[in-house]
Amino acid sequence: MRTIRSTKCPWAFVGVAGVLVMLVTAVHVFMVPILPSSLDYFGARRSVRRPRNVLPGVGVVDSRLQGQFPSDSHGVVAFRGAPWKAEIGRWLAGCNAGSSAVNITEFLGAKRCEQDCNGHGVCNHELGECRCFHGYAGKRCEEVQKLECNFPSSQEWPVGRWIVSICPAHCDTTRAMCFCGPGTKYPDRPVAEACGFKTISPAKPDDPKLTDWKTPDPDVFTKNMSKPGWCNVDPEDAYSSKVKFKEECDCKYDGLWGRFCETPVECSCINQCSEHGHCRGGFCQCDRGYFGIDCSIPSMYSLAYDWPSWLQPSMDLPDLKNISSSPIDVKAVAKKKRPLIYVYDLPAEFDSHLLEGRHFKFECVNRIYDDKNRTIWTEQLYGAQIALYESILSSPHRTLNGDEADYFYVPVLDSCLITRSDDAPHLQMPRDLHIRSYHTLEYYRMAYDHIAQKYPYWNRTSGRDHIWFFSWDEGACYAPKEIWNSMMLVHWGNTNTKHKNSTTAYWADNWNDIPFDRRGDHPCFDPRKDLVLPAWKQPNPAAIWLKLWARPRNSRTTLFYFNGNLGSAYKDGRPEDTYSMGIRQKLAAEFGSTPDKQGKLGRQHTTNVTVTYLRTEKYYEELASSVFCGVLPGDGWSGRMEDSMLQGCIPVIIQVIQHHLLHFMYLRIM
């Protein structure tokens, strides 16, 4: 047995972890009725140790820490230079003080995988199991899967009925992705979606072109420069207008850049493989001895090549390159910070495959890379899931020792699964009723089955110290009943008793028809154990420089502002009466400041109230020019809460609307 002791800590990650802890705590303060009850839900158990930086309820915290963190003459407690209400400031200060570094024994995996996964996967040295690349399966990743791009063809549908992966060219059946293929000048150029099919000219001048999904377009393979081609079009000739090209074709797949996909670039992977591997389309192919979705987990075998930055030896080791086939148990003592979080390394179908096989580079991820490999941040609405996942993986609060962990994070990427649920035939499940919510429930249930069978940690507490993230519109409403004991991270703390049924207007997300034996009878949110987190917002340095949130009251000339889809009465509006539970439609009928399809304004419209559907490039400027900003549901939670707060506009949250509320708003406005 070798014990390795480390006194170094990845200080670069400490700030990230501090910001993460503060973010979750601050959101919990403002959005959950009882400040620390979610954390206390776990800490109150007799059989589980209370995390060292987790405090009891607000009253207990206040009395216990009052002497240590007294309030000033204004009744506030300062934390990191900002004034807070006394009990909140004490909670934050106490939480921060309790997260001191501790020495934790980390176990480095030593189990081998058969035939090293045949070069088609990464070995999980903790379990001794292969994590196979997209399109490969089997205990040794020896099976090459055939993942078709198309549904079966028919007389009506020669290529099969429409699906995102539909392909009239060469289908890469390891990923169900469509390319020009052999015999063309650019065989690796994508032929994605409408690119490979005939277009239908619009009936009216302003109408868009339509795609004839039943008729493949042979011109994409043409070498005739007078026809709009694609697979044989030379980029230089096209840029200089010497040849025509089909405008419906573009570079949708990740890892390629340029109008004609002529420049290979960095793909998007979790933590970009932590400098211990390379990103292959979304799946980290780890260096020898490392594993995990981001190659951040060292094993005994990685020590023969290099040491991870947070683990430095204080003694010499034998030449591990020449060790026998019998594994050596290796321990390392590293400095960590409580609460300690163990992150499950799930099979690839729950995360890496969803990233590697995506058909649109902006799906699922927070960033892509341009032709100079510079980061381009995306506007992915559900990006908080990836951001939190990456932060936890690189945090000093993370532990590889489940026996030391205070919490267990189960990283199912529902945001990616839902956006990709109609991407390819292999992603459709036979029992999902063709409903994305049921499809997602089944994935979470399979993840539960995996961790309950492969690891000892779930059964110790029936999952009460486990954490799951449900980022989609209605949160954890369709969580499988088996995992409801756990903490749910969501964007909507939906506790309204009216919402015992699905509130979305989009049929594929409606969970009312999910069988009772799969979902159970749990609510969507339990404030005793669950947390509401803010949504992802694209990093914007210009917003820091402009400081729109600090704009004074006399510069805010709009009393109330809302910009968004207002329903069927307006151009391009959602047709369903149940969209936004009818709230946006009623607000527009009273205060609409833009004419509807009939040319009418809202009944109570006034000059200092803006309720419009018109998109504007000055959206944030208009928010910053307003006193109150509407936060109204769409098919679920709304990202306008964050938009409002970031621009210093007071958010007005409306989740149910009655006539008397509209009358009250009218009186206030007048």
TrEMBL record:
Pfam families: EGF_Teneurin, Exostosin_GT47. Keywords: Disulfide bond, EGF-like domain, Glycosyltransferase, Golgi apparatus, Membrane, Signal-anchor, Transferase, Transmembrane, Transmembrane helix. Its main location: Golgi. Disulfide bonds join 113-123, 132-141. It is a single-pass type II membrane protein. Residues 109-142 form the EGF-like domain. The keyword Lyase does not apply. InterPro entries: EGF (IPR000742), Exostosin (IPR004263), Exostosin_GT47 (IPR040911), LE_dom (IPR002049). It comes from the Eukaryota. GO terms for cellular component: Golgi membrane. It is found in: Golgi apparatus membrane. The chain crosses the membrane at residues 12-35. GO terms for molecular function: glycosyltransferase activity. PANTHER family: EXOSTOSIN HEPARAN SULFATE GLYCOSYLTRANSFERASE -RELATED, FAMILY PROTEIN, PUTATIVE, EXPRESSED-RELATED. Belongs to the glycosyltransferase 47 family. This is EGF-like domain-containing protein. It comes from Zizania palustris (Northern wild rice).
